[in-house]
Amino acid sequence: MVDEAGTTSAAERRDYLSEKGWRSWALTMDHKRIGVLYIWTTLGFFLVGGVLALLLRLKLLVPGPAFFSDHTYNVLFTMHGAMMIFLFVIPAIPSSLGNFFIPLLIGCRDVAFPRLNLFSYWIFVAGILVTIGSLVAPMDTGWTFYTPYSAKTSAAVTTLSLGLFFIGMSSILTGVNFIVTIHTMRAPGMTWYRMPLFIWGMYATSIIQVLSTPVIGITFILLAAERVFGVGIFDPAKGGDPLLFQHFFWFYSHPVVYVMILPAMGIVSEVVPVFSRKPIFGYKAIAYSALAIAFIGFLVWGHHMFVSGMSTVAGVIFSFLTFFVAVPTGIKIFNWIATLYRGSITFESPMLYALTFIFLFIIGGLTGLFLGSMATDVHVHDTYFLVAHFHYTMMGGTVMGLFAGLHYWFPKMSGRMLNEGWAKSAWWLIVTGFNVTFFPMFILGMQGMPRRYAEYPAKYQPLNVIATVGSWFLAVGIVIMFANFIKSLRNGPIAPANPWQGLTLEWQTSSPPPEENFHEIPTVTDWPYSYGNKSEAQRDR
Amino acid sequence: MAAYKVYLTVWGVLLVLTGVTVAVSYLSLGLWNAAAALTIASVKAVLVALYFMHLRYEIKLVLGFAVFPFLILGLILAGTLVDAIYR
Amino acid sequence: MTDEPENHKGAPVSARLGIWAFLATELLLFGGLFTAYAQFRITHGDLFHQEHLKLNRLLGAANTVVLLTSSLTIAIGIAAIRRGLQRLLQICLSLTLALALGFLFIKYLEWSEDFSRGFYASTNLFFGLYFMMTGLHGLHVLGGMAVMIWLLLRARRGAFNEEYSTPVEITGLYWHFVDIVWIYLFPLLYLVG
């Protein structure tokens, strides 16, 4: 039941975008529209966070004072970190592409709780407004808001706590919605082992969101109580423990990096088979490794605290456990590469970003080992080595995965094709710019340059200059990519229902989909990766 | 009706257990005070969960949703306390 | 495990999964406070022991009884509406609300006494945790009351019957959870501090 593009005129074809008016967007309960609202919101803050990054890199061209004060620098990196993490990287894939595509990929008409979905968007917006208000007030604590400084500073930390609490609620409600949807609303015939791997990834992500986010919630409540009511649980002068803040903070913030990466890995698992025309290698291993990463992610948070004054006993335990997360991660990477092996590979823009993810995430992941190993971490903790590690994983990983997903699903969401020429030019600039910006940071960190310093010894300048120049290439590439999105939305070529010849269910409906997703809910009889040779497809299941 | 009777019985047991836990708290048993109090509290919690919250009659999936989070709670307790104790 | 002693439709599985997933978040939210309590009880055992004696054990026990009874009343109310007994549901909701209000009133008595004796959240670690934990719990009682008022209004307009009582059941599960939190708070703060 495929809607053929071109057999009816655009004016006659009704889809989820047809209804106009601000109310049809602001009060929508259509998961696709809610997904689109989240896309615009999160990408908007990606751009704002990016501008902040460019300002930081501008300052770092020069070792001594320049352009603006050190205090302003502290405010800018706090804003950059907080906005990128809470307003962009965490919600970007789950709330936008997850919302749009989970019902489509499992063959149902909407998520389990559509009103809750709408509520989760608006509480996200409320949280954003409060958070930004507090950040510009200004806030110079760093995005990690450690006590005692955050408990004592005159910055608007209490307000920030409220804003981030709202944003956390949005994340929790989205997670609850997705878990219940995946359990109860799959199309007839879609057993768990016939689900697309993006769904497995989103399921694991949602479990983390539900179980870890409340802990940052109580952390913010306690921080606010510390400031407003003088509760002393983080204050050594009152017998409290500042490390308790760090335990609570990282109990959430470590699993949340898996909230960031698992959806991106899910997208890679979708894109690679399509553009290799080959079934995914090791479906069950990829599925279960997502759950394993989610679980192991809860065991390792202390590796952020090796030099904080935490007990050595705890440090040894956390360091030991940290190594285990490399195993399921490695399994995924191995399976993607095995999928590529002997495939008919083509390099359309979604595939370019998926392959970029694999390459950059290997680097990011491997450098995590130096940080997770307690002895070496003493040398590189809170240096630019760490900054490079998390940019390779969060940007080289999650953001590249997001870009892959956006390019892959752009035709489905908008009914238009992107311009491949512009997409490829943007990709070249982004990948080159990214590596020129962030690779030197590994070296700077090894050489001892600390993070969050506005001024640095002159010997670090050459690599800093290289990194800043790299950031300009990265910025231009991103601008071209966004220009491609805007231009193609307006007058890109009309997209067919299935431009990539994919086998997952979203391609069995029109581009863009009708409001009810499918004219008829499909019955599923096979897994969605039966590409190429039929006997191969049977063997690799 | 059977349901009302079950609830009233459970409620009665809960009240008795509350009385016991208060009574025990007046005795000086050292560390056993905490152990006794937590054990009785857990018995009460399990009764509420099984009968008032219907877990006794629920499908396995819902039971899983109810039980699994305690494992995660155990993790944060364990990790934080290992650090606090060995500092 | 599936033999219910009553004949009913019950809330659909998606609603039950949803509320239990939400309760998981509440468990972890309070869990942070319990973790802080555990840590400081170990490192500041004497302070906890000495300070907890300043709490009113009997009022705390009374509140425990009040909350346990409110769990009973809402459970009966749900059993009632599953049989289509709308009037009994309304009575039970009202009783639950009254008991919840009673809980908050007793809490108010306790807190005002504490304040008058100069015990505040900023006084020391024990009282900081005491006010945080009972305060957060009290907010959840208040939230539950707000939902129950809304349920009562809907019930009076005949919104619930033997075929449909999902919102009441969901709220009941939330309310029992709030009760369970108190079941642990009471001994930990009042009896063994």
What would you say this structure looks like, in words?
- The complex is a heterotrimer of chains A (541), B (87) and C (193).
- Chain A is 66% helix and 0% strand.
- Chain A contains 18 helices and no strands.
- Chain A has helices spanning 22-26, 31-59, 70-106, 114-135, 149-152, 157-184, 197-229, 242-253, 255-276, 283-296, 312-322, 326-340, 349-372, 374-380, 384-414, 420-446, 461-491, 534-539.
- With 87 residues, chain B is mostly helical.
- In chain B, α1 runs antiparallel to α2.
- In chain B, 34% of the residues are buried.
- With 193 residues, chain C is mainly alpha-helical.
- Helix content of chain C is 80%, strand content 0%.
- Chain C has 6 helices and no strands.
- The termini of chain C are far apart.
- Chains in contact: A-B, A-C, B-C.
List the helices and strands and how they pair.
The complex is a heterotrimer of chains A (541), B (87) and C (193).
Chain A: H1 22-26, H2 31-59, H3 70-106, H4 114-135, H5 149-152, H6 157-184, H7 197-229, H8 242-253, H9 255-276, H10 283-296, H11 312-322, H12 326-340, H13 349-372, H14 374-380, H15 384-414, H16 420-446, H17 461-491, H18 534-539
Helix pairs in contact in A: 2-3, 2-4, 2-17, 3-6, 3-7, 3-9, 3-15, 4-6, 6-7, 7-8, 7-9, 7-10, 9-10, 9-12, 9-13, 9-15, 10-12, 12-13, 13-15, 13-16, 15-16, 16-17
Chain B: H1 2-25, H2 31-52, H3 60-86
Helix pairs in contact in B: 1-2
Chain C: H1 13-43, H2 45-52, H3 57-82, H4 86-116, H5 125-156, H6 166-191
Helix pairs in contact in C: 1-2, 1-5, 1-6, 3-4, 3-6, 4-5, 5-6
